[in-house]
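Data availability (excerpt). The following record was deposited with the supplementary files.
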Amino acid sequence: MDADITLHVDGRPRQVTVDTRTTLLDALRERLGVISPKKGCDHGQCGACTVLLDGRRVLSCLVLAVTRNGHEVTTADGLAPAGALHPVQQAFLDHDGYQCGYCTPGQVCSAVGVLDELDAGWASIVTPDGAEPHLDDEEVAERMSGNLCRCGAYAGIRAAVTSAGGAR
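Predicted structure:
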C-alpha cells in the first residue's frame, strides 16, 4: 500500500509517495535523493543513518517514513544551510574526527544531538546520581556509543564533540 507524505528535509518540504513499509532512511536516499545519511547495517546497530528528527537524534533505518509525515528531518547536509560549516562539522575537521568519512554524517548528527541532550540536562548511564551531566570523555564516549567507526577515529570524534561543546 502506498501513501503520500510530506517530510520537511533540511528546511524544505518534500512530498513523496512511499510504500507504507519504507524506512525513513530509504525514503530519504532512494526516493528523495538525500544521500547524507548512510545505510550501514540497516538494523540500527551502527549509527551511520543517524539524522535529527524534530531536533532529536534517531536511527532513520528503524523509523517508518509514513509515521513521520509532516515532521522535520535534518541531515548533516542541513546543519549549515548557508554554506558555512556548523560548529560540530568544523570541530570534526579540526580534530580529525573522520577517516574514510562513511560514518561521518551520522556521527555529526549524533554529536549535535548529544550536545543538545547535555544542554537539556539529560543524564546518561555514566552521569553520577543526582549530578548535572557535564562534557567529559566518559560522557561523550557513552553518548556516542551508538555510532560506530570502522576506521577507529574515536579519539578525534571525542575531541571534536568536546571541542564543539565547549565552544558553545
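Summary of structural features: The chain has two domains: 2-79, 87-166.
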